Amino acid sequence: MRKYYKEKFEQFGQNYDYKKKVKSITPAEINQLIALFMQVEFATILSQFSESERIDLLESLKSIVLSDRANKREPMINGTDFKVVRNLFGKYTQKTMKIFLANSSNSFLYTHFYLINGRSACFQQSDVDQANFNVQMKKLMLESFRSIFPCVKPLYEKLYESHGAKL
User: Fold this and answer.
1) C-alpha to C-alpha distance for 122 and 145, rounded to whole angstroms
2) Distance separating alpha carbons of residues 124 and 149, to the nearest angstrom
3) pTM
């Protein structure tokens, strides 16, 4: 999931010279860039979110996309809380994943990723039992429905029922 969002954001950021400016981007500028990315990535669904939900989503997405920059002293990461994602990405456990998925924004981001790229992501992993990995990802996706934003839950459940079960 981290790889998916990071690569998609960096690809999007090429239009804004993100990589060239990475050391000098301010928190306001990165927020603006991530908000623009959200409009592209979640174009058909973003209007369903309240303003506070969009802000929460932006913060979660930012912590995922920039998680590898958490220890750098760059202006753009000031005020970003990386604790939950760094714990999850640093040492995956069921407990850290449950903590991650307890947040509505994180649950949404995982569900969105899974429904778009989940199966192919499973079968790109050569160092694991791919079929078992896919089963585990499905379970996590169903777990994410417990905390996903109520405004999109029915739609994503319907998408899962019609497409996700085939994954």
Assistant:
1) 20
2) 29
3) 0.90
